[in-house]
Amino acid sequence: MAKRAAPEVNAGSMADIAFLLLIFFLVTTTIETDSGINRKLPPMEESEEDVIIKQKNIFTVLLNGRDQLLVEDELMELKNLRKAAVEFLDNGGDGTCDYCKGKKDPSSSDNPDKAIISLKNERETTYKTYIAVQNELVAAYNQLRENRAQALYGKSFAEMEANYKDVNWPGNKEKLKEQIEQIKIEYPQKLSEVQ
Amino acid sequence: MSKFKKKKSGDMPAVNTASLPDIVFMLLFFFMVATVMRQNTLMIENNLPFADQVEKLDKKDLVMYIYAGKPSANYKQYGNEARIQLNDKFADVNDIAAFIASERASKREELIPFLTTALKVDSEANMGLIGDIKQELRKVNALKINYTTKKGSVFGRN
């Protein structure tokens, strides 16, 4: 008996079907990775003895309900905040900080390790202003760390951190971690928020 | 009459489209893999603020999302005040603790310390609400937070 050939399936419309699916996925796709400012909240601890901090080591930033910025009891524009914060942090008033490039003004902060930025906001402050201020303060720290990394290792701090996170980076991770830690110790992020 | 007729020289050969499905499938698979479907339907306006000192929030499975903002046009009956949204429904500040607990319960135990809370808050919201959220998060010891923002300059677009 003659073998009957199976009829071939017409695949002409496969492309159409695939196109349909493709367009669906094209439309629904959002290739997004969220990004934002990472912060750590202070843990709840009731019994904490008061630490006495010298007034000159605190950089007060106050945001009022009308989104006005009061820095060290003076009105300030948002665009000047970063510079003011850098000046405060990098001041090195008591001379123990040999890498600071500030003015060594004795009435400002002693040491980046002691300098604290205190941020206070009111309930009516809008979120975007708050984020803008947070952003500027983080930028001040980043700028200082960046400069320090350039001076110490001739590399950018952001690049160092990116390399540290990168699994495929070929260099010595232990050493890199040490270097990053060193910079973080020299310019610790001391940003406190008043509730 | 010869069997082998010469082809007319002016005729252009048709482009072979046999590999078209393959190409389309390739694209299709790319988009299928890259697609992230939205997890939550937003019931609030969520116009994130701009910032430029941002860090990427990778490891999506280790992120808990808290949304806040003004109810959007379809949900006007909930008022004009900024509200919190957790998992497709409006919530109160007191619900955050339960939300965090349930999120933690759904993760493996060893991953719990790495959980981050992403606050996706509308730029017009008041800090009072955020302060309350943060206070709640401190109570349940969920201390790692991330203010999710769009990338851009903080100036100019205020």
From TrEMBL, chain A:
Membrane topology is: Single-pass membrane protein; Single-pass type II membrane protein
Main localization is membrane
Q: Which family would the database say this protein is a member of? A: Belongs to the ExbD/TolR family.
Protein name according to UniProt: Biopolymer transporter ExbD
Q: What is the lineage of its organism?
A: Bacteria, Pseudomonadati, Bacteroidota, Flavobacteriia, Flavobacteriales
InterPro entries recorded for this chain?
ExbD
Q: Which UniProt keywords apply?
A: Cell membrane, Membrane, Protein transport, Transmembrane, Transmembrane helix, Transport
Is the Transport keyword given for this protein? Answer: yes
Q: Where in the cell is it found?
A: Cell membrane
Q: Which organism is it from?
A: Flaviramulus multivorans
Automatic annotation (TrEMBL), chain B:
Transmembrane region(s): none
Q: Can you say where in the cell this protein is located? A: Cell membrane
| Superkingdom in the source lineage | Bacteria
Query: Carries keyword Transmembrane helix?
Result: yes
Q: What keywords are annotated for this sequence in UniProt?
A: Cell membrane, Membrane, Protein transport, Transmembrane, Transmembrane helix, Transport
> One short Pfam family name for this protein?
ExbD
How does this protein lie in the membrane?
Answer: Single-pass membrane protein; Single-pass type II membrane protein
Please verify whether the record's keywords include Protein transport.
yes
Could you tell me which InterPro entries the record lists for this protein?
A: ExbD (IPR003400)
Q: Which family does the similarity line name?
A: Belongs to the ExbD/TolR family.
Q: What is this protein called?
A: Biopolymer transporter ExbD
Task: Please name the source species.
Answer: Flaviramulus multivorans
Q: What is the lineage of its organism?
A: Bacteria, Pseudomonadati, Bacteroidota, Flavobacteriia, Flavobacteriales
